[in-house]
Amino acid sequence: MFRNIAAAVMAASAVIQASAVGVNAVPGGLSSMIDNPAEITELTLSGAIDARDIFFIADEMPALHTLDLSAVSIEPYEGAPLKQLMRYEGNEIPAGAFAGSQLGSVKLGRANGAEPVALRIGNGAFAGTQLESIDIPSGCIIGEGAFASCRRLVSANIAADAVSAGAFAACDALESVAAPSVKVVGEYAFTECVSLSDVRLGASLSEIGRNAFAGCTSLGAFTFPQSLVAVGASAFCRSGLVAADLSSCRNLPELGDWAFSQCGQLAEVKLPASVASLGEGSFFECASLVSVNMPVACAVINPYVLKGVAGVDAGELIGEGVSEIGDYAFSGNTATSAMVLPSSLERIGDRAMAGMTGLADINAEQLDIVPELGRNVWAGVDQPSVTLRVLDAMYSAFATADQWKNFTVINTTSESDIMLSPRNKVRGCFDGHELKVDFGGLDADVLEIYDVAGVRLTVADVSGEAGASIDTSAWQSRIYLVRVQLADGNVASLKLGRK
User: Fold this and answer.
1) pTM for the whole thing?
2) Most CB atoms within 10 A, among 42, 161, 301, 384?
3) d(Cα 278, Cα 305) in Å, to the nearest integer?
4) 487: which residues sit within 8 A by CB, 6+ positions away?
5) Which residues share a beta bridge with 454?
6) What is the pLDDT of residues 19-41, one digit of tens each?
7) What burial letters (b/e) apply to 29-61, b meaning 16+ CB within 10 Å?
C-alpha cells in the first residue's frame, strides 16, 4: 500500500514539474525546445523570442495560466506569413495574440535586466483573457482594447504615460487603477468598468477622452488635477461621481458634450473661470445636482445642459454676457423662483424653461429688445402667476409678444421705481390706475402712500402679505411716495409716477 501511495505522489510531482517550464530561448526556436506544450501551465522565458514563438505559445499552450516575459527580448520577424503578415516589429506583442486565452497572470518588464524598452502591447493582445491583475512597466505603449473584456481583472498598475482607446473597456470586475504617470486617458479606456471605485492618476494628467469612464457606476470620487486641459464627450456619463471639483483646472477651456450626463449621485460641481463652454447636455438628468457654477466666460448656455436637474437655482446661472439659452437647457427645473434676464440675452430655445413650476418672478428690466423664443419655452409654467418686470419703454412689446404676454407684465417707469431698501427687494409700478407693490419675499408690516405734498392718502396693514394692490383712480396726483415698514425695522421708500 505504501509503495503504491509513494508511486502516486512521485507521478503527481512529475506532472507538476512538467507543467512549469523555464526556457532560455532563441528567436523562432521555442517550438523545438518544449515537449508536450499542451500540458504546460507556467512558462518563464529568458533570452530572445520573436513573433513565431509568441504565436506558438498562444496556439499550442491552451492550459497556460502564468507567463513571465520580464527577462526576454522580442526581436523583429520577417519571413513566411504568420497570421497573414510577413513582418512583425521587435519589442511587440502582436495584436490579438492571446485574446480569449486562459492566461491568468502575465509578467512584463525589463529585457535581460536592461533598462526598460518601449514594449508595445498590440491591439486586443490580451482581450478577454482570465488575467486577475496586471503591472504595465514604464515605456510601454498600450494598444487599443489591449485588455478589454478581461472579466476577472481586479487591479491594474500602469507606469506607462498613456492608456489607449478601449484598453480596459468592459473589465467589469476591475476595482482599482493606479497610473501616476499617465498624461492621456483615451476614449472608452475604462468604459463600463462597473466595479471601478479607486482611480489614482497623477498630476500630469492632461486629457480624458470621450466615454473614458462612462458607465463606471462605482466611481464615486475622482481627482481632477491642475494639468487637465480636456474632458471629452460623455467622459463620465452614467458614472457614480458624487462631486466633481474642477476648480483648479485653470487651463480647461470647455466640457465635452454630455460629459457628466446621467450621473444620478452627482450633487456638486465646481468649474474654473477658464471654461467658456459647457457642452450640450453636460449635466443632463443629474437628478441629485444642487450646486454648480456657470463661469462668466460662457456666452451660450447650450442645449440640454441642465435638463432634468430640478434642484439648481437657474437664476444664479444666467449672468451678464449670456446671449442664448439653448433648447431644454433648464427643462424640469423646480428650484428657481426668480431670475434676472441680462441685457445681452437674445434668444431662449425650445422648452428651455419648461416645467419650472417654482418660478414666480422674472426681471427683464435690463432688456431693450424682446428676446426671440423657441417653441413652448414656458410649457408647464403657470404664467399668469409669474410677474414679468419690464421698463416702461418695453411694456407694449412684451405685453403683445407671443409667450411673453401670458405673464403678468408689470412696467416700471424708470429706475426710480426699483426698491430703495437696504436689501434691494421691494418693487412697485403702475398698471393703469392700479399701484402694485411687491415686497420681494420680505416680511412687511405697514404700507403707506403719500402725495407729493406729503399728505398721507392711505395706510394698510400688510402683515403676512406678499404685496399689495391699491386703486388710485380717485386720487388726483400723478406722483406718489410709497413707504413700506418692514418687520425687521427697515423702511423701503419708492417714488412712482402714474401716466
Assistant:
1) 0.79
2) 301
3) 7
4) 442, 443, 444, 445, 463
5) none
6) 899 999 999 999 999 999 999 99
7) bbeeebeebeebbbbbbbbbbbbbbbbbbbeeb
